[in-house]
Amino acid sequence: MSPQAGSAPAKPAFTVAEVLRVGLPDYARAHPMPPQDWRVLRAILACRTPALGGHVYQCRECAAPQFVPHSCRNRHCPTCQGANGRAWLQAQSSVLLPVPYFHVVFTLPHALNPLIRQNRARLYELLFAAASATLLEFGRRQLHARLGVTMVLHTWSQTLLDHYLCAAAHR
After folding, report:
1. pLDDT one-digit tens code per residue, 86-101
2. Are residues 44 and 67 in the same domain?
3. How many domains are contained in the chain?
4. 70: how many CB neighbours lie within 10 A of its CB?
């Protein structure tokens, strides 16, 4: 049964932080990560725990104290950004044109992973430039149309291994 429009999504069985707490120690021993990745992971792990502090509120009816921990507010944290992401998606959905949309994925070979880790910004620029140029040229030559493109960078696979790809939606 699908949720009612406007209703809150069901709480997931596990949070990303819970999965990280279980799997990250073993993974980290076998796969070194750059400092910026560790900063994100530490923020997600600490999110809404006493590690970040919080506020104590008192119930007006029974006077019982309740501790509410602070969130990490990291832009990569699914707990913090989930509501923002849903709001953004809803706003974007309201301006979609009544035309077909397509999802296209451009993936870099795994052999490039060490090079990407050394100069992420430049390699991401090149990936986006190549993917957008390819789509725009395809639209011009094959469809005789000017495409609109939205692109998103993904850097991990479902198993949290390095996997660099650019997902593009075009119309």
Report:
1. 888 888 888 888 887 8
2. yes
3. 2
4. 15
Specify if 7 maps to a domain: no
Structural domain boundaries enclosing 17? 12-82
Domain boundary, last residue among 55, 82, 109: 82
The answer to the question of residue 31 being in a domain is yes
Per-residue pLDDT tens over the stretch 14-29: 888 899 999 888 888 8
